Amino acid sequence: GAVVSQHPSWVICKSGTSVKIECRSLDFQATTMFWYRQFPKQSLMLMATSNEGSKATYEQGVEKDKFLINHASLTLSTLTVTSAHPEDSSFYICSAQQGGSYNSPLHFGNGTRLTVT
Amino acid sequence: KQEVTQIPAALSVPEGENLVLNCSFTDSAIYNLQWFRQDPGKGLTSLLLIQSSQREQTSGRLNASLDKSSGRSTLYIAASQPGDSATYLCAVQSTGNQFYFGTGTSLTVIP
């Protein structure tokens, strides 16, 4: 089945530094990937839609200059949290829909636990 | 804006019981509805995908139904097992190509 790999699975960084999270579709091409943030015991909050070869579409309230998204190929999207602060600590999850088809399920990475100290 | 609600928020049942999880959505303009399972600290695993033109999907002990006109879906789990303990999320894909998630139902199956 379709696999989405997310790396790293957890990261601890100091306040003010930047962290890059990778999301790869291992056995399918994904023209569109989605980035979510999840707080404890809450559902997923869509941050942005990542489009291969073009700019990401950010949800209202998400700072595009803080959460940089790059979708350079059909199998890789990256999320960079710039100048991280403790309030950015959260669980970040990416997903991709195989073939971009509405008939295909959404596949998720295993998430990245970010802790900013 | 689409709103997705899941009831109950938490559920605890003894092993072997059949159970139903509920999902409701406010806008019927959807492409599909998907049920996921999330284990603590992990990503989401897709369980079932129901296209907007379909009424139900089955996979093993799981059966999901969809009534698009009333904005409802149910996930039926037969003969529950302790390994079924997890948070179950439903999500709809709107015709605007966005995904909207419910807040989840935390299921505990007691051995």
Overall description:
The complex is a heterodimer of chains A (117) and B (111). Chain A is built from no helices and eleven strands. Chain A has strands spanning 4-7, 10-13, 19-25, 32-38, 44-51, 57-58, 67-73, 76-81, 90-97, 106-108, 112-116. The termini of chain A are far apart. Chain B has strands at residues 4-7, 10-14, 19-25, 30-38, 44-51, 56-59, 62-67, 72-77, 86-94, 99-101, 105-110. The A-B interface holds A 4, 6, 32, 34, 42-44, 46, 49, 91, 93, 95, 102-111, 113 and B 31-32, 34, 36, 41-46, 49, 51, 89, 91, 93, 97-99, 101-104.
Radius of gyration of chain B: 13 Å
Amount of helix of chain A: under 10%
Tally of individual helices of chain B: 0
| Poorly predicted segments of chain A | none
How many β-strand runs of chain A?
Answer: 11
Which of globular, elongated, flat, extended, rod-shaped describes the shape of chain B?
A: globular
Q: N-to-C SSE series of chain B?
A: EEEEEEEEEEE
Summarize the structure.
The complex is a heterodimer of chains A (117) and B (111). Chain A is mainly β and 117 residues long. Chain A is built from no helices and eleven strands.
